[in-house]
Specification:
The structure holds 3 protein chains of 3 kinds.
Chain A (H helix, E strand, L loop, with lengths): L1 H4 L2 H23 L31 H37 L1 H15 L3 H12 L3 H12 L1 H15 L2 H9 L3 H37 L11 H9 L7 H28 L15
Helix pairs in contact in A: 2-3, 2-11, 3-4, 3-6, 3-7, 3-9, 4-7, 5-6, 7-9, 8-9, 9-10, 9-11, 10-11
Chain B lengths: L4 H16 L14 E6 L14 H10 L4 E3 L5 E3 L2 E8 L2 E6 L13 H12 L14 E8 L2 E6 L17 H5 L14 E7 L3 E6 L12 E6 L3 H9 L5 E3 L4 H10 L3 E15 L9 H9 L3 H8 L5 E2 L23 H10 L3 E2 L5 E3 L2 E2 L1 E7 L3 H16 L3 E7 L1 H9 L5 E6 L5 H9 L13 H12 L3 H18 L2 E13 L21
Parallel strand pairs in B: 1-10, 17-18, 17-19
Antiparallel strand pairs in B: 2-3, 4-5, 5-7, 6-7, 8-9, 9-10, 11-20, 12-19, 12-20, 13-20, 14-15, 15-16
Helix pairs in contact in B: 7-9, 12-13, 13-14
Chain C lengths: L1 H28 L4 H6 L5 H10 L6 H13 L13 H36 L4 H15 L2 H15 L12 H9 L3 H38 L2 H8 L4 H39 L4 H11 L2 H29 L7
Classes of the chains: A mainly alpha, B alpha+beta, C mainly alpha.
């Protein structure tokens, strides 16, 4: 733990992430205005005493919108990472451990999804499923689960031949036990790193979907929506887009730093290093 | 010893190179002499006039092809290929053609080409988008090489306004030429090149019967994002941009004063399509109440920033002969709306939401994601409705999903538009006549039917105007359509571009002047 | 090596088949109807039905899928519903543009990434290190469309240094023109490429810089390099001749993965910069439900991506014989 605190990336990233999470959880108490409280006479005003971060294109308090947005964007991002991570890990474990035709088939499935550019896959899925936060979460999970599968498979392949695993098999331990108790802990570090970095990716991808006009419906205040709306007014009223963009940037930065810091601790062998895909902007 | 080394040096050199070769009006911003670069939002999909579908296609086709008539900037028919026309009886039109028009391959334009064009567009197998505009035509025949007669099934007054359809060369099409990608017309500009997705290039037709156009070359440059297109214009990469543009950019460019700016009342409307067959909206009182909860002024003034005009009814001021200012839709009046809802049996529940027989007044308002102004409008409308007791939700999807829903009558309220409204018939007949092919909500009202049919058949403009006024008044009470605004049309041009006359449909024929 | 290559190429076939099926299903599950979109606002029911029949959309799905595979086997990607042209010709017309922008983005990210990574590694722990890594991280954390619009605003609208939109002469012919005494053509092409490529490449620069930094740090403290230093070689030589070359290894692998990311990112960037590439084609095709076109474009993406991955894997094993393939 002491060692952890000496890693500047970990500390910086961790602090940012903690702050954002706190805002996300406590936003109803932190927001002075209603999320849907419009005030058309005061649209797009910059920061002031009345509105700490100014107002958006409908005159709604931007700080309130962004704080509420923290809750929403974070829930969507983290949920999608949870789903992607779980699904990918399970596939990776089975694929790596079972070998043979099961591995072959599952690997082809992974390749199939990998071959799709993530944003386009998310686009197509949202078109099929319809808009809304649940569907966006599913679409994001589907776009990014493959990296977990690949990493976990690689680790499983390496661990499978190790003595302690062979011993467990010899003793007749059940499959879930072998996978869960013996192999999975070795993958936990890299998975956590991937997941942390993945949250950042999910946030940025969601903003890309909002830019294309798909994803969560208004008036839900996701950060991506606020940014892409703000950009329409960039030339005359840059506050809205700049503040929303900075919020996204700082949050993703926080997660990336945290992920990198975690990597130094949990993934010294660098299994994730060569395999992870960087965020899609 | 150098950290940067070769790589760093390379990067620095590249930047320096680009920097030094950039005197302020960067070389690449300078238009080649005689070339006008027109910014456009979508690439054309077809340059065959019978199959044209989107704005860029209309405008390019209008320059490449000639037609029987052209509509001027006041939407009045003017001679083009037809030098004069007669209307001896309500079901017959006779056009006399000019004899000096030639296609760009040198062959003369004759009545046979006109007949061929209209016959093929009416052929269902061609799947022409605008086929229904011409279905009242019974027969079209070449009386002789220079005369065409159109016989109608019944009187069809708007016909003349639809005859600006580009005439295609019969010999070329029958010879296998694909006009979709290789157009051949007889208009002031010839097709030169098409870089798909980015640029359509046209060249002046030296043998044009109206005289060789002043500008040698025209390029349609595709920039999908409205803001990016405005930025490109400001950077000097485009000489002309038109609606659709973001209202902010319009305001800013107009205020900057560096470009020539023209604002026209357009011939397009933005409206709310209210599904009279949907659960809560069958009662006209509910629809009227809904209309009374639309804060039209704020939407037009704030979201559209005054770039469009608040609408009063289905009658367009730009079609002056048909406009009647005294026909008015319900105005924004939340108190009256609540009273009307109460009359229809809707009472506010404990949470403020209107309810009747245990059901909430739930309405979904949808629009398509591609238009950010409409998206904002819907978000705003939802907010106001919610404040006044209506459980309103927003549903935004892309155009195919959204329009598919509306066209199958599966929506409650949809925010959409109609363009190219050269005649009141174009806005009302297909959409609101019970036999109309565009009446997706299956709205049926005998009074409206009678008025619209009369409008089609009447011979004189005043008689037609009276019929449409009657229809519009009835529709303003019934509210299957709430017209939000008459779309303004905005054009910015480089000040050096002379002789350009803006057109409410964005057509660019004036660039073809000598 | 040969066997491995052959096997990988053979595996491409089922992959592409799988993708074709997946895309087919997706496109038919998405609500909305290309016939209706084609006919636009003026779609009457009979017109829509007629058009659907002529497009073959009214046949049962398995039949349509079978017909599609029949055509695919003959390398026929079909005809775009909206653009009255064969899908193959539309893709071929746009592919070079996307390849150009991807290539430039890779180049920029490689150059930037290596520069930043080297600087950070050599000056480890110093403010330079921190700054370089922060700069790189910032690039990854910004949504690409935000970055693109800002770049355009600064460099095109305000400074007039670069053109805002569009594409110049294709690179190969521009380079040819430069050699035959017309360098301004090449400069023009590059000027159009810089901003979109930078917007796309900046995020990848971060990943590469991190990798390079880590690899360089390992190398710089290794016995091999210490020996070189002890022998009295100049620091620059040490850094470049020995450390950097080995640090480039992981960069090669990363390049492969970046391709899919680039193709994704290009979707947003192409729209902003009016760049006539495949990304825009894909988005528009999905938006219109131009089913044959969507299928064709995604298959092309997948094919290109798979090829790039294969090349990268082969390259990697060629450079570092310790890596075992398969």
């Amino acid at each position: 733990m002491r060692r952890a605190l000496r890693n500047p990336q970990l500390v910086a990233g961790g602090t940012v992430v903690l702050l954002i999470l706190l805002v996300a959880v406590f936003h109803p108490f932190l927001a002075p205005y209603g999320v849907e409280q419009m005030d058309m006479a005061n649209r797009l005003s910059g920061p002031s005493a009345k509105h700490w971060l100014g107002t958006d294109n409908f005159g709604r308090d931007l700080w309130t919108r962004l704080a509420h947005g923290a809750a929403i964007s974070m829930s969507i991002a983290m949920a999608s990472v949870l789903i992607a991570g779980t699904f990918g890990t399970v596939i990776g474990l089975i694929s790596g451990y079972a070998g043979g035709w099961l591995d072959l088939t599952l690997s082809r499935l992974v390749d199939l999804f990998l071959a799709f550019p993530p944003l386009i896959l998310a686009l197509a899925l949202i078109a099929v499923l319809g808009p809304g936060p649940v569907n966006v979460t599913i679409a994001l999970a589907a776009a990014f689960w493959t990296q977990y599968a690949r990493v976990v498979r690689a680790i499983t392949l390496a661990e499978r031949e190790r003595d302690y695993v062979l011993a467990a098999e010899a003793v007749g331990a059940s499959l879930p036990r072998i996978l869960g108790r013996h192999i999975l802990p070795n993958a936990a570090g890299p998975i956590l790193v991937l997941a942390t970095l993945g949250v950042g990716t999910a946030i940025v991808t969601e903003s890309g979907l909002s830019f294309l006009g798909l994803g969560v419906q208004p008036p839900t205040p996701t950060w991506g929506w606020t940014l892409s709306y703000g950009l329409r007014f960039l030339r005359s009223d840059p506050w809205m887009s700049t503040l929303a963009g900075l919020t996204i940037m700082l949050t993703v930065l926080g997660f990336n730093l945290l992920g990198d810091g975690l990597r130094d601790h949990l993934d010294p062998r660098g299994v994730v290093r060569g395999i992870r895909k960087n965020p899609v902007s | 010893m150098s950290k940067m080394g070769g790589f760093g040096l390379g990067v620095v050199a590249l930047v320096a190179l680009l920097g030094t070769s950039a005197p302020v009006t960067s070389a690449w911003a300078q238009p080649a002499k005689g070339l006008i670069r027109i910014g456009t939002d979508v690439d054309s999909q077809s340059l065959d006039p019978r199959l044209m579908r989107e704005t860029t296609g209309f405008r390019a086709i209008n320059l490449i092809y000639s037609a029987l008539i052209q509509l001027d900037d006041k939407v009045s028919p003017r001679p083009d290929l037809a030098t004069k026309w007669e209307n001896p009886d309500p079901k017959t039109w006779i056009f006399t053609l000019r004899r000096d028009a030639r296609f760009h391959d040198g062959r003369p334009v004759t009545a046979a080409d006109v007949v061929f064009t209209y016959t093929t567009i009416l052929d269902p197998a061609l799947n022409a988008r605008f086929r229904t505009l011409y279905t009242p035509i019974d027969k079209i025949e070449a009386v002789d090489e220079g005369t065409v007669r159109i016989s109608l099934k019944e009187p069809y007054a708007p016909l003349l306004s639809y005859l600006d359809l580009g005439i295609v060369p019969k010999h070329a099409v029958e010879g296998g030429r694909d006009l979709n990608v290789n157009p051949l017309g007889s208009g002031p500009y010839k097709f030169a090149k098409w870089k798909r997705g980015s640029r359509i290039s046209l060249e002046a037709n030296a043998d044009y019967f109206g005289g060789k156009p002043k500008y040698d070359k025209l390029d349609f440059v595709v920039v999908p994002d409205n803001t990016a297109r405005a930025q490109a214009f400001e950077a000097g990469d485009l000489d002309l941009i038109q609606s659709p543009l973001s209202p902010r950019d319009i305001k800013r460019l107009a205020a900057a004063g560096k470009a020539a700016y023209a604002k026209l009342p357009g011939i397009a409307v933005t409206y709310l399509n209210i599904n009279t067959k949907s659960e809560n909206l069958g009662d006209p009182r509910v629809r009227k109440a809904l209309a009374m909860l639309i804060d039209q002024k704020t939407i037009v003034d704030q979201i559209y920033e005054g770039t469009d005009q608040a609408a009063t009814s289905l009658l367009l001021p730009s079609l002056a002969w048909s406009y009647a200012a005294d026909v008015k839709q319900p105005a924004f009046d939340p108190a009256k709306a609540k009273a009307l809802l109460a009359e229809a049996g809707w009472k506010p529940g404990p949470d403020g939401i209107m309810g009747k027989d245990g059901k909430k007044l739930s309405i979904t308002i949808g629009t398509h994601s591609e238009d950010p102004n409409r998206v904002q409008t819907v978000e705003f409308i939802q907010n106001v409705l919610k404040q006044n007791g209506v459980d309103a939700k927003v549903a935004i999807s892309d155009w195919p999903s959204f329009s598919g829903g509306v066209q199958n009558g599966r929506h409650d309220v949809g925010l959409m538009g109609w363009v190219a409204l050269v005649d009141p018939d174009r806005l009302m007949y297909g959409q609101l006549h019970s036999a109309g092919g565009l009446n997706w909500g299956k709205y049926s009202n005998a009074k409206v039917d009678a008025a619209l049919t009369a409008g089609r058949a009447a011979a004189s403009l005043p008689a037609r105007a009276a019929a449409y006024k009657q229809a519009a008044a009835e529709l303003a009470e019934e509210m299957p359509y709430y017209v939000l605004s008459y779309q303004g049309f905005h054009v910015f041009t480089d000040k050096a571009l002379t002789g350009f006359v803006p057109d409410p449909r964005g057509y660019l024929r004036s660039l073809a002047a000598k | 090596m040969l066997a491995y290559t052959a096997r990988r190429i053979a595996l491409l076939v089922p992959l592409l088949v799988g993708i074709a099926v997946l895309v087919f299903l997706l496109m038919h599950l998405i609500p909305g109807d290309p016939a209706r979109v084609l006919l636009g606002d003026d779609a009457t029911k009979e017109a829509v039905d007629r058009l659907r029949a002529s497009l073959g959309l009214d046949r049962p799905l398995p039949v349509q899928l079978w017909l599609y595979f029949q055509r695919l086997a003959a390398f026929d990607l079909g005809r775009s519903i909206f653009q009255s042209q064969s899908v193959a010709s539309l893709i071929l017309a746009r592919l070079p543009a996307t390849l150009e922008i991807a290539f430039m983005a890779l180049l920029i990210s490689a150059l930037l990434g290596i520069a930043l990574g080297v600087a950070a590694a050599v000056k480890q722990g110093s403010p330079v290190d921190v700054f370089c890594m922060m700069f790189a991280q910032a690039g990854v954390s910004m949504p690409v469309f935000w970055l693109g619009i800002l770049l355009m605003y600064v460099f095109a609208v305000e400074l007039h240094w670069l053109p805002a939109i569009g594409r110049g002469e294709p690179l190969p012919s521009a380079i040819g023109a430069a050699f035959s005494g017309r360098p301004e053509v090449l400069l023009k092409s590059l000027s159009h490429l810089v901003m979109p490529a930078l917007a796309l490449g900046l995020s990848n620069a971060a990943v590469i810089s991190r990798l390079v930094r880590a690899a360089m740090l390992e190398m710089l403290s290794s016995d091999f390099v210490r020996t070189a230093r002890a022998k009295g070689m100049g620091e620059g030589v040490v850094v470049f001749r020995h450390a950097l070359r080995n640090a480039l290894l992981p960069v090669v692998t990363v390049i492969g993965w970046q391709c899919g990311v680039l193709l994704s990112g290009s979707v947003l960037t192409e729209g902003i910069f009016g760049w006539p590439g495949l990304g825009q084609l894909a988005v528009n095709a999905i938006a219109q439900r131009d089913i044959p076109l969507v299928q064709g474009v995604i298959l092309t993406f997948a094919f290109v991506f798979a090829l790039v991955n294969l090349t990268v894997d082969l390259l990697y094993s060629a450079i570092d014989p310790r890596v075992r393939l398969g």
